[in-house]
Amino acid sequence: MEGDEDKDNLSSVKHIVVVLSGKGGVGKSTVTVQLALSLRQAGKRVGILDIDLCGPSIPRMLNLQSKDVHQCDAGWVPVYADRERTIALMSISFLLENVNDAVVWRGPKKTALIKQFISSVAWGELDYLIVDTPPGTSDEHLALVEGLQRYSIDGALLVTTPQAVSTGDVRREITFCRKTGLHILGIVENMSGFVCPHCEECSNVFSKGGGEELAKVCGVRFLGCIPLDPQLSHSLEEGRDFIEEFPQSATFTAFKHLAQAVERGPP
Ligand SMILES: Nc1ncnc2c1ncn2[C@@H]1O[C@H](COP(=O)(O)OP(=O)(O)OP(=O)(O)O)[C@@H](O)[C@H]1O
After folding, report:
1. Which range, of 41-45, 77-81, 98-102, 230-234, averages the lowest pLDDT?
2. For residues 132 and 47, what is the distance between their CA atoms, to the nearest angstrom?
């Protein structure tokens, strides 16, 4: 019988994008979800693999936290966010008895689960698989890069905030990508400028432009700024589709441009 590690469920996935950040809380999961929804708007089928094993937040953002995964011959059937099955999600949350259970695992156990996620999720035909990772460069990232070695990865999207740019964490992510041979698609500056919920004007409460500067210095592409938008965080908190709710917003346009940059692929 075929072992799990021999399954080739990713052969029907056209593009793989890995979302990374040096620091926690800069908006990796937010960018992952909104990028997936923007690509869906552009007619793509998208899968999201959440390998943030200790802090999975994507099921809540997509209002899927009460769902379970099922088994089929090819492996785990991911959870779908819509009836048309255009957004599929796999997360450790779906395997826990209680969504609030803490995952306290050492490296080898995390590595084994990530390798299983890579081989044993029956994604079917996908245009994009977007992988949301924990902050930093740890066991999860190494297991992911090793597990994906036989596939062609489009590259990594590095998420930062204007404040996090100066800390050197993003530089460490760039070094990680270069050492492991992971192509860098570019840097996204999230929470860049504040969108007033009343007049929708965007003002720069924190510094802006650090991401672009860093991209220039490090010789990687700058993929744009996403504003800090209270309407976006409310939508995510309540598991509502921000893109459907606020199609006229500057934040929506920013994600649309990001999706177009991802679709253009590596430079
Ligand atoms: N552009 C934005 N506008 C408003 N709120 C945002 C924005 N980006 C992220 N947030 C909010 O910031 C918080 C952290 O975002 P998120 O969970 O995406 O970060 P993360 O980098 O994935 O965190 P972790 O390191 O814990 O995985 C969330 O409450 C999210 O709703």
Report:
1. 98-102
2. 11
- The answer on whether 265 is annotated among ligand-binding residues is no
* CA–CA gap between residue 232 and residue 230 (Å, rounded): 5
Domain assignment present for 267:
no
**Candidate of 18, 29, 32 to mutate for ligand 1, largest count of ligand atoms within 8 Å of Cβ:** 29
Q: How many domains does the chain have?
A: 1
* CA dist., res. 97 & res. 93, Å (int): 8
Residues with CB under 6 A from ligand 1: 21, 24-30, 52, 55, 57, 135, 190-191, 226, 228-229, 232-233, 236
The first and second tokens of residue 107, run together, are 């490296």
To which H or E segment does residue 121 belong?
A: none
Atom of ligand 1 nearest to the CA of 190: 1
- Longest CA span, the chain: 62
Establish whether 27 is an annotated binding residue: yes
On whether 28 is known to bind a ligand per the annotation, the reply is: yes
As for the ipTM of the complex, it is 0.98
Q: How many other C-beta atoms are found inside a 10 Å radius of the C-beta of residue 54?
A: 13
Is pLDDT of 195 > 50? yes
| Contact indicator for 17, 101 with CB cutoff of 8 Å | no
**CATH classification at residue 20:** 3.40.50.300
Expressed as residue numbers, the domain containing 230 is 4-262
Residue 250: inside a domain? yes
Is residue 208 situated within a structural domain? yes
Atom 23, ligand 1: residue with shortest CA distance: 25
Tell me if 111 sits within 8 A of 143, measured CB to CB.
yes
* 91 in a labelled binding site: no
